[in-house]
Each structure stands twice: as C-alpha cells, then as structure tokens.
Amino acid sequence: MTRGGGVPYHWLTEHKIAHRGLHDRSKGIVENSLSAARAAVCAGYAIECDVQASADGEVVVFHDETLERLTDATGRLDALNHFEIARLTLRGTREGVPTLRDFLATIGGNVPLFIEIKSRFDGDLALARNVAEIVAHYRGVVAIESFDPAPIAELRAHFGALGIAGAPLGVVAQASYEGEDWRFLSAAQREELTQFSHVERTRPDFLSWNVHDLPHEIPRRCREDLGIPMTTWTVRSAEQAKTALAFADQIVFEGFAP
Questions:
Q1: Who has the most CB within 10 Å: 15, 18, 82, 90?
Q2: How does pLDDT run across 157-192, given as a tens digit for each residue?
Q3: Where is the GP-PDE domain (predicted)?
Q4: Is 143 left (phi over 0), alpha (psi -120 to 50) or beta?
Q5: Burial degree of 178 (CB within 10 A; 0-12, 13-18, 19+)
Q6: Pair 174, 209: CB distance under 8 Å
Q7: How far, in Å, CA of 194 to CA of 135, rounded?
C-alpha cells in the first residue's frame, strides 16, 4: 500500500466536520445549504458538502441524484440546466440550491471544506475537472474526496496542471459495497473498492471511513502504518464519537453538538 501525496495536511483533522454543513430542520436549516454553511462557520466547524453537475456542467451543492427529498420538484438533478436549478427552492425554506462557487464565497476561507464528488462510477471525469477549476481560484483550505477512485486518480495525475497542488485528495470508503445502494457497480468495481486496490492510482492524502465498519484492517493500515489521517462518517451522538475516535483522527458528524 502506497503513502498518499506525501504532503502533511495537519488541518485535515484539527476541526470536527459538520456533515453537509451544520443543518437542523427544526431551525429551518437544510443540509448543503448556504445557511448550513454559515452556521458551521459561526460554530467553528469544518464543513463537508456534496457536489454534482447540472445538465450544462455547473457544479452545484446537492446530495441526492433526484429532487424529491429536498425540493418540491421531481426528477433527476442532472436533467436540469443551471438556470432551471436556480429556480428551485429547498423544501421548507426560501433558499435555493447553491452553486459550489456561492458555497465557497459564503465560507470565505474561514473554515476548512471537504468537497465530496458524487459519481455514477461511469468514467465521466468532467465534474472532477470542473471542481478543480473552481477550487484552484479559492484562497481557503479545501480537500476533495469521493467514493469513486476514478475522479481522485484523475486529480492525482494532473493536480499540478489543474492548479490544485495544495488541495489534499481523499477516498471515502466502507467495508462492503453489496446491497441496493451499490447495485450499479460492476463485479470488478466492487472488488476494487472492497480490497482498496485502487490505492496505487489514488494515493490518498486522507481517508474517510464508515463509522459502522470500525475497527477495520484497511483504515488501520492506512492510519497506523502509513500515517494517513482518517476521518469517520457519519457520527450521530457523543457516545458514538467517543468510540469512533479510538480508531479515527476526526469525526464527520450531524444531529448533535460535539
């Protein structure tokens, strides 16, 4: 197993990380919204967010592939262009779906940001390149991560030319990729993820592992043998956080104040 990019990024684990921002439905603050970003900044937490591409390539901050859970619209997010997405309202608020550029402007470099590139594992690297183009012009500290090894390997191979040499690259992972959520994976993709055999191409600077799968040999080797920092997701209680931090360097949390 190969060490990551080789650059020490101490800030990766200095702050607890608010999952999709510091959201709270009871206060009208929806996940991945600008208000969730502002709340996290005010509390001094780092932020994790999810990004996807509109039909015309705009990078937007949104978790789901479909619109129903978070808006009053229906259908796939990537079927809409950025003008159509701009007209959407996050359910229960007056806020729209933010672009990554707006999200970065709202954070303003005040806290670290972890950008998770959502992927259909179909080999399309346009979103990764577009994220890199935006991040290259941002003065705050940003890490880029994904479940899919392909965009991370692409950014690793070209990070200098893309202008993101200062941005650590990470892999989000877990022990198993069976079940309905992973039905789209080929057998070869599932084996690569399970065995973490992409490590020679991704060379992660950090790892983010599913808290329910700890302890596990892969994150243990990355963290203890190679010195790769590890966060763990998604921690939902102080008790769970205490247990998780026996095996990880920092938590990605939601639903409580750590």
A1: 18
A2: 999 999 999 999 999 999 999 999 999 999 999 999
A3: 14-258
A4: beta
A5: exposed
A6: yes
A7: 29
